[in-house]
Amino acid sequence: MSKSKLRPGDLGAPLSEKEFEELDDFLTSDQTSDETLTIMGLDGYLTALAIGPTTVPPSYWLPRVWGPNEDDAPKFETTDQAQHILGLILRDMNGIITSLEDDPDDFEPVLAFRRIGDREYLDGEAWALGFMEGLMLVRADWQALFDNEQGREWLNPLYLMGSDEILPEEQQLIATAEQREVLTKQIPASVAAIYRFWLPHRQAVHERKLAAAMQRTEPKVGRNDPCPCGSGKKFKKCCGAAAELH
Fold it and tell me: Who is most buried in 100, 118, 156, 200, counting CB within 10 A?
């Protein structure tokens, strides 16, 4: 494993095939718990965070990659190894975001194949479990999608395969490998649709944050400075006086 230091500029670099396999191996190694997400689950988890309405800081979502409890934290051999693996995860997240921004219709989830008899089936159960884990991390923020009839249809394949508890009649919809494969093939279209549903919201939030940042950078007008309205009076004798009255 590489022991190179992680630099901020490195976070924008996509994972190579070798690095992707390295991350896959680590997630299933003896250094992690049985509750740690698989590479498929991680892809679903990060995708939910990437397309949702809320920008969730890594400090909030990273711990859940390893499992629900503090005891699930990985046993890194060194600080350099920890930094390296965390860097791979963050770069994986950025790669998903970039892929969606480039063209959500070309998004390709990391899916598994399951062999039953002499046939191999595409299986998105692990991916959907990760996706729903990411969604439930900020469940309240997704309410508008649950309230939207079409939104519920988009979520349906992810909900059916990725929820811990579903109704008995819903269980019948994922009872066979054939049924799960049909639902799995719906995942890319669902992701693209959900991404577009939340896009205006994410843009509005970004614009509000940008406006707030710009306001914070504007110099504060002193009471004896010329009023910014252009009257030629001192601020305290012009708009400043009005502000004091209110």
Answer: 100
Taking a C-beta distance cutoff of 8 angstroms, is the pair 100, 195 a contact? yes
Q: What whole-number distance in Å separates Cα of residue 220 and Cα of residue 204?
A: 26
Q: Give the start-to-end residue ranges of the domains of the chain.
A: 8-208
Compute mean pLDDT per 10 residues along the chain, 246 residues long, and list them. Answer: 50 88 97 97 98 94 95 95 96 95 96 91 97 97 97 97 93 95 98 96 65 49 58 56 36
CATH number of 8-208: 1.20.120
Query: Which amino acid is it at 56?
Result: V
Q: Cβ-count burial of 223 within 10 angstroms (0-12 exposed, 13-18 middle, 19+ buried)?
A: exposed
Six-digit token string for 120: 């191999």
What is the distance between the alpha carbons of residues 2 and 181, in angstroms, rounded to a whole number? 37
Of the chain, the end-to-end C-alpha distance in Å amounts to 64
| Cα–Cα nearest to 113, from 124, 102, 128 | 124
Beta strands in the chain (DSSP E): 112-116, 119-123
Nearest residue to 156 (alpha-carbon basis) of 139, 137, 174: 174
* Residue 226 burial (10 A CB sphere; 0-12, 13-18, 19+): middle
* Stated pTM of the model: 0.80
Q: Which amino acid, residue 92?
A: D
State the DSSP code for 234: B
